[in-house]
Amino acid sequence: MKIAVFGIGLIGGSLALSLRETGFASEIWGIEKNPEHGKKALTLGLVDRLGDMDDALREAELIIVATPVNVMIPLVVGLLDRVRPGQVVMDVGSTKNNLIEAVRNHPNRANFIATHPMAGTEFSGPEAAIPRLFEGKCTVLVNAAESGEGALALAQKMYAALGMRIVEMDAAEHDVHTAYVSHISHISSFALALTVLEKEKDEEKIFELASAGFTSTVRLAKSEADTWIPIFQQNRDNVLDVLDEHISVLSRFRSLLIKNNFEEFHRLIHQANDIKRILRN
What is this structure's pTM? Predict the structure, then answer.
């Protein structure tokens, strides 16, 4: 299958690597706004050739949009305006409500499938791409009933080839859940990094003392602002709700420390330990 990937960064590049490795793709076109990223993707062998929208629409059977979410909406609509019968457009973005609304009444809506592979790292750019990033992870097919049978079947086949578990959600449900399990984690990591950097001016001491616990907690603070600001903008209301709850829990811990109420603190930590039942790894 000939595949075109818009945005050859962590997700787009890792998809390209994995789809080639599994034999799902016979040829991969890379469409990249940043010329340096495009050259690097070609040099690294992530894509077979570079092109533009015209190339993607002319050559590809499947077009994957892996750009930042603020670029994604007009790009997906523009692709659907010109898509051929049987050609499938797929996005892999982290927010869905705005995108789904933008394409809801499009005459070629059946050619589009909204997806979100729940995998990634804190790194970005073509050099961040890694093979088998998606193996064993979960992917979400969003508002799948609004996609045509061909688009849905192709998405299911592709993600099965990548070794992913597939779940279906509507856009509103997806955006609430990602606010809880992904978006708030990034805000918390950014906040912790800023707190430590402000209080601990001696960077050498931070480096010496930082253990696995701190490193794993703050690693998401390395994530690119250009990627995450559009996500926070598009999922603002859900992120605000989760952030309010998070601040309330932090305030509760603070109050218990002030009151020396370590018995209640112990109970809450024990309650938090129940996360082990859900997250087994």
Answer: 0.90
Q: Which residues contact 244 (CB under 8 A, 6 or more apart)?
A: none
Measured in degrees and rounded to the nearest 5, phi and psi for residue 107 equal -60, -25
* Residue that is written with structure tokens 């073509």 in the block: 126
Distance CA 41, CA 152 (A): 28
**Can you tell me the distance from the alpha carbon of 207 to that of 186, in angstroms, rounded to the nearest whole number?**
21
Residue 142 contacts by C-beta under 8 Å, 6 or more apart in sequence?
96, 100, 114, 115, 116, 168, 169, 170, 171, 174
Name the residue type at position 72: M
| Residue pointed to by tokens 């015209």 | 54
User: Digits of tens for pLDDT over the chain (281 positions)?
Assistant: 999 999 999 999 999 999 999 999 999 999 999 999 999 999 999 999 999 999 999 999 999 999 999 999 999 999 999 999 999 999 999 999 999 999 999 999 999 999 999 998 888 899 999 989 999 999 999 999 999 999 999 999 999 999 999 999 999 999 999 999 999 999 999 999 998 887 776 666 666 666 667 778 888 999 999 999 999 999 999 999 999 999 999 999 999 999 999 999 999 999 999 988 877 65
Q: What stretches of the chain show up as alpha helix (H) in DSSP?
A: 10-21, 35-43, 53-59, 69-82, 97-103, 149-161, 171-178, 184-199, 203-209, 212-218, 225-234, 236-258, 262-272, 275-278
Chain centre to alpha carbon of residue 269: 29
